[in-house]
Automatic annotation (TrEMBL):
Keywords: ATP-binding, Coiled coil, Nucleotide-binding, Repeat. This is ATP-binding cassette domain-containing protein. Residues 2-246, 310-527 form the ABC transporter domain. GO terms for molecular function: ATP binding. SMART domains: AAA (SM00382).
Length: 637
C-alpha cells in the first residue's frame, strides 16, 4: 500500500504539504485534485523517488513496479510502435540479453531467456502495443511513422501509450486526457477500469474521474484529504463538510465576541476579575476554525453583443475540405441566436474542418455560405494560443483591442480570469498552457461575440476555470457551436448534437450515452477486414453473386495455408515435448553430459521461437479465414 504519514514537502520557499496523511490500498483508483500549484506533480515526483520528503514518511512496497506518463519525448527517430514498446523496460532488457546470448552461442542462457521472453509476453507484445495505439486514435500507417513526425499533442498520446504498455503495480497519470478527443477518452476509461494495479490520476475532467476512480485525494491548504467515491461524490461530501465548518466558525465567532465583550466590560471590576481572567484563558485555548473560503478565483461573462442577425450564419450544400479535396459533402447548417450545438464524431471525421470553415479560416470547396450582416464570431482553437504575442502582457493584449478604455476597467475584467496584481503586466512568454487558454478566452469574451465557435476550449483548464466557463456559456445570449472532450461541459451548455461521420453532418437523436454506444458500433463497423467487405454493401444481386464466387476462390488457399500452419505447429509442439521430456531426466544435468545438455537447451530455445512464430501466423491466418467466411455468409444471405 501507499502510506504517507506526517509528511512535509517543500519546493523552494513554498510549503506544499505539512503533516499530511494518506493511505491507499492495492487496487484502489484515486483521483488527485487541487488548485494549480498545490503540489500534485511534486507528489508524483515524490512517489517516483525523484524527491525526498522534508519531514515525515512516504512508504511504498519495494517490489512495486511504477509506471508514469512522461511529459517529454527524448527520441524523435524511433518508430511510434517501437517507442511504445520501449515502455516495457523488462521486455527490452530480455530482448537485449537474447541478442547477446545468441551472439555468444550460449545455449543454456538462451533457453532461460526464451522462457523469460515468453513470461514477459514478448510474443504478443507488438500486437498489444498496436492495440494501445489504435485505441488512442493512431491509424495503422501512423504506427510506422517516426515520433518526430507527430505534433506535440500526438507525442503526448505516445507517452500515454508507453505508460500503459509498462507492466506496473502503481500507475501515475498526470492529465492524460489533455490531448485526447472524446473517442480516445472513452477508450481510455475502459482500459483503466480493467487495470488491476493501484492508480493515482491527476485530471480536471470530472466525468472521466467519475467513471474511473473510487476515491478522490484533495490537496488543499498543505493537507491531503481522502474522499470515498468519484468527483461528484467528492463535491457533495466536501460541500457538506464546508457547510458544517462554516456553521462551526460562525458559532465560534459569536462565542468569541461574547467572551471578548464580557472581558472588556468586567476586567476592571474586582468582583468580576476572576471570571474575566478565565474567559481570557478560554479565548487563548480556543481552536481556530478557518472560514470556508470556497469562492472560485474565476468570475466572468461574455460581454453582451451589440447586434444580432437571424440567422447568424447559413450554410447550404456545403462541400468542406482542403484545396480541391472535400472532407464533408452536402452540409446544411443554419445557426440562429440562442442555438446550443455540440459536435460529435470520430477522430478525423471533420469536426475541426467544419468549425474552421464557419470561422472563416477555410474557404468552402463548394456550396453557399452566407454570413449575417451583424455576425461577430468568437473563435477558440488550440493553435490560436500560439498566436498570442509572447512579449505582451494580458493587459497589453486587451489594450490593443480597446485602446480608448480605462486601464482599471480592463484590469477588473482580466481579474475575472485570475490575472491579478503583477500577473496582469507579465509577458505571456512564461505563461502555462492553462494561463494562455484563459487569456485567449478573455480576449474572445471582451469582443462581444454573438456566435462562439469553440474547438476543445477546456484543454489545460483546471476544474474551477471549467466551471466558470460553463456558467459563462449558460448566460451567453448568442449561438454556441462546440467540440469538446469534456462531457460535463457538453451536457451543461448544449441542447442538441450534430454527428460528423462518413463525410456527412447530421442531427444526432440521442445523448452522450447513446453516442458511446454508437461509437462502439462504428468502430466495429469500420475495423479493418478483408477487401471484399465493400462488395457486401452493394444491393446488386448479380454483383453479390460474383463477389461471393471470387471470395470462395480466395478462401481455398487461405484454408490450405491455415491447415499447413496447424500441421507444422503440431510437429514443432511434438518435437518440443520430446526435448522437454529429455530435460526432465535429472541424469542429463551431470557434468559428463554437459554437451548434451547444451544441445538440448539450444533445441528447446529454437523450438520455442518457432512455436511462437507459427502460433502467431496460424492465429492471423484463422482471423483472416473467419473474416472471409463471415463475409461470404453475408453475401449469400
Amino acid at each position: 500500500m501507499i502510506r504517507i504519514q506526517n509528511l512535509t514537502l517543500q519546493r523552494g520557499p513554498k510549503r506544499l504539504l505539512e503533516h499530511a496523511e494518506l493511505t491507499l490500498h492495492p487496487g484502489q483508483k484515486a483521483g488527485l485534485i487541487g488548485a494549480n500549484g498545490a503540489g500534485k506533480s511534486s507528489l508524483f515526483a515524490l512517489l517516483r523517488g525523484e524527491l525526498l520528503p522534508d519531514a515525515g514518511e512516504c512508504d511504498l512496497p519495494q517490489d512495486w513496479r511504477i509506471a508514469h506518463m512522461r511529459q517529454e519525448v527524448d527520441d524523435l527517430q524511433r518508430l511510434a510502435v517501437d517507442y511504445v514498446l520501449d515502455g516495457d523496460q523488462h521486455l527490452r532488457q530480455v530482448q537485449a540479453a537474447l541478442i547477446r546470448a545468441e551472439a555468444a552461442q550460449d545455449g543454456a542462457t538462451l533457453g532461460q531467456l526464451h522462457a523469460d521472453f515468453d513470461t514477459a509476453g514478448g510474443y504478443n507484445a507488438d500486437a498489444r502495443a498496436r492495440k494501445l495505439l489504435a485505441g488512442l486514435g493512431f491509424s495503422e500507417a501512423q504506427m510506422g511513422h517516426h515520433v518526430g513526425d507527430f505534433s506535440g499533442g500526438w507525442r503526448m498520446r505516445l507517452n500515454l501509450a508507453q505508460a500503459l504498455m509498462c507492466p506496473s503495480d502503481l500507475l501515475l497519470l498526470d492529465e492524460p486526457t489533455n490531448h485526447l478527443d472524446l473517442d480516445a477518452i472513452l477508450w481510455l476509461e475502459d482500459w483503466l477500469k480493467g487495470y488491476a494495479g493501484t492508480l493515482l490520476l491527476i485530471s480536471h475532467d470530472r466525468d472521466f474521474l467519475d467513471a474511473v476512480v473510487d476515491h478522490v485525494a484533495h490537496m488543499e491548504q498543505a493537507k491531503l484529504t481522502l474522499y470515498r467515491g468519484g468527483y461528484s461524490a467528492f463535491e457533495r461530501t466536501r460541500g457538506e463538510r464546508l457547510a458544517q465548518q462554516q456553521q462551526a466558525y460562525e458559532k465560534q465567532q459569536a462565542r468569541r465576541a461574547h467572551m471578548e465583550k464580557y472581558v472588556a466590560r468586567f476586567r476592571a471590576q474586582a468582583t468580576k476579575a476572576r471570571q474575566a481572567q478565565s474567559r481570557i484563558k478560554a479565548l487563548e485555548r480556543m481552536e481556530q476554525i478557518s472560514a470556508a473560503h470556497v469562492d472560485s478565483p474565476f468570475e466572468f461573462g461574455f460581454r453582451e453583443a451589440l447586434k444580432f442577425s437571424s440567422p447568424l450564419l447559413d450554410l447550404a450544400e456545403g462541400r468542406l475540405g482542403y484545396g480541391d479535396k472535400a472532407v464533408l459533402e452536402k452540409v446544411k447548417l443554419q445557426l440562429a441566436p440562442g442555438a446550443r450545438i455540440g459536435l460529435l464524431g470520430p477522430n478525423g471525421a471533420g469536426k475541426s474542418t467544419l468549425i474552421k470553415t464557419l470561422a472563416g479560416e477555410l474557404a468552402p470547396v463548394g456550396g453557399r455560405l452566407h454570413r449575417g450582416e451583424n455576425l461577430v464570431v468568437g473563435y477558440f482553437a488550440q493553435h490560436q494560443l500560439d498566436s498570442l504575442d509572447d512579449k505582451a502582457s494580458p493587459l497589453l493584449h486587451l489594450q490593443r483591442l480597446a485602446p480608448n478604455e480605462r486601464e482599471q476597467t480592463l484590469k477588473d475584467f482580466l481579474g475575472g480570469f485570475d490575472f491579478r496584481g503583477a500577473r496582469v503586466d507579465e509577458p505571456v512568454l512564461n505563461f502555462s498552457g492553462g494561463e494562455k487558454a484563459r487569456l485567449a478566452l478573455a480576449l474572445i469574451a471582451w469582443g462581444r461575440p454573438n456566435l462562439l465557435l469553440l474547438d476543445e476550449p477546456t484543454n489545460h483548464l483546471d476544474l474551477e476555470m471549467r466551471l466558470a466557463l460553463t456558467l459563462a456559456l449558460q448566460e451567453f445570449g448568442g449561438a454556441v457551436l462546440v467540440v469538446s472532450h469534456d462531457r460535463h461541459l457538453l451536457k451543461s451548455t448544449t441542447d442538441e448534437f450534430l454527428l460528423v461521420a462518413d463525410g456527412k453532418v447530421a442531427s444526432f437523436d440521442g445523448d452522450l450515452d447513446d453516442y458511446t454506444r454508437w461509437l462502439a458500433e462504428y468502430r466495429q463497423r469500420t475495423a479493418p477486414s478483408s477487401g471484399a467487405e465493400a462488395v457486401g454493401d452493394k444491393t446488386d444481386k448479380k454483383a453479390q453473386r460474383q463477389a461471393a464466387a471470387a471470395l470462395r476462390q480466395q478462401l481455398a488457399p487461405h484454408k490450405k495455408q491455415a491447415e499447413r500452419l496447424e500441421k507444422d505447429l503440431g510437429e514443432v509442439q511434438q518435437a518440443l515435448a520430446q526435448v522437454e521430456q529429455s530435460l526432465a531426466d535429472s541424469a542429463v544435468y551431470e557434468p559428463a553430459r554437459k554437451d548434451e545438455l547444451r544441445e538440448l537447451l539450444a533445441r528447446q530455445a529454437k523450438f520455442k521461437v518457432r512455436q511462437g512464430e507459427l502460433e502467431e501466423a496460424w492465429l492471423a491466418a484463422m482471423e483472416t479465414l473467419e473474416a472471409m467466411q463471415a463475409e461470404l455468409e453475408t453475401l449469400n444471405a
